[in-house]
Amino acid sequence: METMRDRFGTVASRLLDEDPRVAVVLAEIGRDAFTDAARRHPDRLINVGIREQLLVGTAAGLSLTGMRPIVHTFAAFLVERPFEQVKLDLGHQDTGAVLVSAGASFDWPAGGQTHMSPGDVALLDTLDGWTVHVPGHPDEAETLLRHAVAAGDDKVYVRLSLQRNRLPLPVDGARFLTVREGRAGVVVAVGPMLDTVLTATEGLDVTVLYATTLRPFDTAALRRATEAAGTDVVLVEPYLAGTSTRAATEALADVPHRVLGLGVGRRELRRYGTLDEHLAAHGLDAPGLRERIGAFVGAGAVSA
């Protein structure tokens, strides 16, 4: 089955063919996906080696010359390790790039804590001006990557994952989509969490919104949903729990509301396990979500 990362390699290679402004910058990881593209575009396919600070610095330099760099490696090495360069080379210099990560929160548990990054989006939230896309399907990853590359010189983060939904939805790089309507609360399912959320909320009288662009946060969509479904809001994110609670709270600042942030817990799990075992341990499988969402929105949320 094709993964989001498989699709990324294909689409980024096509973008090199289609747009002379595009450059792809790697740090060893992912190079095999660009073997043919490197032969066609040796001047715009740059592998800096295992030097993640240089990875981001090189992207900033390319941006200053008018290029549109796509930068790729594991999330832990793309956001966390070179964070000073993300903050200064891109942020302080006001230069744009498209950062595309792999690995997500714990896609490769055998890699251990060094290859896990549940805090990547929260860390970017400390900076100004970032767009954050979290696709839930390879088709959505392609749409959002193309949107990011076309977005002028903006700073964009595209978070890829092995987790995926069964079917894509028509995402547009801006809006939340209404997937299910109810009257007893709103559940915002982020990216690859949608299918699990729909299973977990089956029979609950809640509205389900689907979010693949988290920054900027779609305030208007959340407000519209709460007008009909009430202001109990649950956010289900595939990264650090509570990452978007501030954004949801600000969206509803003028009305009484409650917000529950569900996601990856802060406690480090020190056994490798599998991806599914990590999801269950953090309560992000369908039974865990149903228990917590049901308790939050109350018994009255069960539809007839």
From TrEMBL:
It comes from the Bacteria. GO terms for molecular function: magnesium ion binding. Residues 2-167 form the Transketolase-like pyrimidine-binding domain. Gene3D superfamilies: 3.40.50.920, 3.40.50.970. InterPro entries: PDH/Transketolase (IPR051157), THDP-binding (IPR029061), Transketo_C/PFOR_II (IPR009014), Transketolase-like_Pyr-bd (IPR005475). Pfam families: Transket_pyr. This is Transketolase. It comes from Streptomyces seoulensis.
